[in-house]
Amino acid sequence: MPNAQDPMTNLLPEMAENWQKTLNWQPTEEQQARLQHLYELILEGNRQLNLTRITEPQEFWEKHLWDSLRGIAPRQQLISSLEVGASVIDIGTGAGFPGVPIAIVAPNSTITLVDSTRKKMTFIDKILSELALNNAKTLVGRAEEIGQQQQHRENYDMALIRAVGNASVCAEYTLPLLKKGGLAVIYRGTWTQEETTALQDAVQQLGGEIESIEQFVTPLSNSIRHCLYLRKVTTTPAKFPRAVGIPTQKPL
Ligand code: SAH
Q1: Which of 46, 113, 115, 166 to mutate to test the pocket of ligand 1 (most atoms within 8 A of CB)?
Q2: Tens of pLDDT, residues 58-85
Q3: Positive/negative CA dihedral, 144, 148, 151, 155
């Protein structure tokens, strides 16, 4: 049995060529060290909290690290606005994905990590302090409430959401938080053309439009993934997001 404490068995693969080929980018030595440290902290946290089932180094690299960064690299370019100080919010971040890897690679952006589970956010606070990541902070709360708060509504350049709900729920959680011109990134596994058609009306009601949908293949296990990019084009009507629980019970 590999020992969770043994640094040799818990070494992340470097994947320099893979990063270069897929995202036209490579982590610096410091970023690689932080990604490695993040991995170790999550393995350690997993012993108390149910954070993730993905613990093997290659799988962690692909499903958590690579996938998180692939979402902010439409057309295989890590989004350049992140280099000039974008404000980003990650809704339902759980163990910190996709927000924490993005905070590591984009030190000039500020990332707000939101989750309704307090104990997960307490754990993320510990991660942020151990990694000395001062461009990220946590917020305990529900997307439906935060989206109605003046200090958060229409306040972000980018809103990210992975594995939180169906796509129209994700649109209702993210679009109210964006400034006009901002971008929501919805991370998905499978996706079909029929789903795009069904999502269009919800996105329009929320003041957005579907800008693009990218399908890609993950570099190690060759799994199919999708990212939906929604652009905020006009102010979201005040009634959205609806009260806690309504978006999931009655999706737009
Ligand atoms: N984004 C992470 C975690 C996904 S699990 C990842 O991809 O690995 C979904 C997370 O969303 C859970 O931690 C849950 O607590 C949180 N969540 C679900 N509904 C939410 C809501 N309405 N507001 C805030 N967080 C929510």
Answers
A1: 115
A2: 999 999 999 999 999 987 777 877 878 8
A3: positive
